[in-house]
Amino acid sequence: MREKYVIMVRTILTPEHTDIHLTIPEAYIGKPVEVTFLALDELERQRGKTMNNFFGSKSKIRLSDKYRGVFSKDAGKSFKEHTQLMREEWNNI
After folding, report:
1. Exposure pattern of 24-63 as b/e (b: 16+ CB <10 Å)?
2. 8 A C-beta contact, residue 79 and residue 87
3. pLDDT by residue (tens digit) across 72-91?
4. Which 3-state string (H, E, C) describes the chain?
5. Which of 24, 32, 40, 69 has its Cβ near the most Cβ atoms within 10 Å?
């Protein structure tokens, strides 16, 4: 079976004006394409931040406390075993 490869054009530039001219590869003509603008200095400032940096850390509630009583003990044990099995399967891929 012949593999297909996705053509991707990526470049980093420093704009000097608010307009940018793009040359589209022939293979993309007539197809939807994605164009993303991302200031790399903004990305660098975000590195190392966690979800708490974005949503705030209102409290230090542990998940085990938050969901206490949602499952019966038997259902909780079964769910925990199932979760561990799934994690083991993913680790063996």
Report:
1. eeeeeeeeeeeeeeeeeeeeeeeeeeeeeeeeeeeeeeee
2. no
3. 888 888 988 999 999 988 88
4. CCCCCCCCCCCCCCCCCCCCCCCCCHHHCCCCCCCCCCCHHHHHHHCCCCHHHHHCCCCCCCHHHHCCCCCCHHHHHHHHHHHHHHHHHHHCC
5. 24
